Amino acid sequence: MVKICCIGAGYVGGPTCAVIALKCPHIPVTIVDLNQDRIDAWNSDTLPIFEPGLQEVVTQCRGRNLFFSTAIDDAIRAADIIFVSVNTPTKKNGLGAGFAADLAYVEAATRRIAAVAQSSKIVVEKSTVPCRTAESMRRILEANSRDAIRFEILSNPEFLAEGTAIADLMQPDRILIGSLPTPEGRKAQHVLADVYAEWVPRPQIITMNLWSSELSKLAANALLAQRISSINALSAICEATGADVDEVAYACGLDSRIGPKFLKASVGFGGSCFQKDILNLVYLSESLHLPEVAQYWKQVVDLNEYQKRRFAQSVVSRLFNTITNKRLAVFGFAFKKNTGDTRESAAIAVIASFLNERAHVHIHDPEVSAAQIELELVQPGVCTQAVYDAQVHRFADPYEAAKDADAIVICTEWEQFAQLDYQRLYDSMHKPAFVFDGRLILDAPKLRQIGFQVEVIGKPAAPKPGFNA
Length: 469
Ligand code: UDX
Ligand code: UDX
Ligand code: ADP
What we know:
Elements: E1 4-7, H1 13-23, E2 29-32, H2 36-42, H3 54-61, E3 66-69, H4 72-78, E4 81-84, H5 104-116, E5 121-125, H6 133-143, E6 151-155, H7 165-170, E7 175-179, H8 183-196, E8 205-209, H9 210-241, H10 245-253, H11 274-287, H12 291-318, E9 327-331, H13 346-356, E10 360-364, H14 370-377, H15 385-391, E11 392-394, H16 398-402, E12 407-410, H17 422-428, E13 434-437, H18 444-450, E14 453-456
Parallel strand pairs: 1-2, 1-4, 2-3, 4-5, 5-6, 7-8, 9-10, 9-12, 10-11, 12-13, 13-14
Antiparallel strand pairs: 6-7
Residues 7-13, 32-35, 38, 72, 85-87, 105, 108-109, 127, 272 line the site of adenosine-5'-diphosphate.
């Protein structure tokens, strides 16, 4: 019987190991973190992250074979398999600042394992990391290992998307397990594969070498983000020509070589992974002296910045080139629907430019707290505390947020935003009342009938007769 420990109780480690515990009731799984508050939340009825279905999984397993703790050393000693799921943010200072991943947390966790282990371990790199991180981990572990204690390193990247994490974990497209091409490496690969085989069909559990596995994770995220930047680039052409980006995406998606998924135009992608992973790839390409390759991937991020800027600018220009002292109701602050996560959310950049134009911003998001909004907005390059206090308000009720506003700006694709009573919203707003749909989720013709001026990304401003609006 194996025992599992997971270091890092975040968006990746928490749901992943909770599902392992659910599917493998005979395996004890302990998730540890340095952050006592986070662990307390995992042990309470209010989990630290919002993820549909997660509460049910945790409730079923917690105390049975799933444990949350800050006793990191004990959990390391007891485990046979240790997942490293700590954060790997983009470096803020020093060499590679703004591009390279900050591996300080991975290194600290690895050193801890080396320091306290009293038996051999399989150490699994779960956080998304730059290619060859496993090599650094291996060197740290080997340099610190003692007699008869062996460490095998595996790369087992996680492909879950937030908002659908539980479904993604229960029915993954594939599980990748990378190892060194040694007999011990392959043996460790099999041990981990047996864990997943409890619920994932064997053909979907793919083994490969360590570097391929690490690069596959970066590549998959880069390709996904590139599709969004591609459709967003087309959305600008659509607006300028009268084509409809949804129609273009539908037509292209019917080509079986292209496929329909991940072609929804938007105000821009966000989340903790896409930008970070592409910048990692850019940094890697530059370090390998491949400037053309670096430039190619960098353009995916640049286009995303452009899309956010373009959307914010269109709001200002449609509101008669000034939003000073106007109220703008921003619906959605999370980086996508069905999550409370705000990391790299497009809403942040959009709101930053509104604040810069001295507008009053009324934010409504079903899952994001006022404290979280403040944490994201009061930052260098976004806004000062004084600007935040004077110009930003968070509303639990969307109707309150839109009262006396000049415009509603949709930044997140929460389904409930399409279900609101737009007549009621319209009646309480300044006229002309505008809606800017950055997610293509609203019924624009219906809103126009109510009297709204409607702008939708990738769609013609005023539909001409004979065209489908
Ligand atoms: C992503 C990957 O999908 C996942 O496999 C990986 O493990 C982590 O990174 P995540 O960031 O959680 O997951 O969400 P995802 O659904 O990929 O969305 C990322 C961003 O792209 C969101 O802001 C989303 O709104 C946006 N998006 C997505 C679009 O704008 N259009 C689309 O068609 C799809
Ligand atoms: C293309 C489109 O596929 C087709 O739908 C359109 O009508 C005309 O343009 P074609 O140029 O005939 O068709 O061939 P295609 O199979 O698309 O290949 C184009 C080039 O891409 C070839 O040089 C091919 O070798 C190359 N290719 C294709 C790759 O290098 N890798 C691939 O995975 C696929
Ligand atoms: P991700 O989205 O990759 O899961 P998060 O930031 O949500 O990232 O979670 C990472 C978690 O890892 C945080 O809760 C952080 O406190 C924890 N962590 C970071 N370093 C260590 C460490 N050395 N030991 C234990 N936990 C750590």
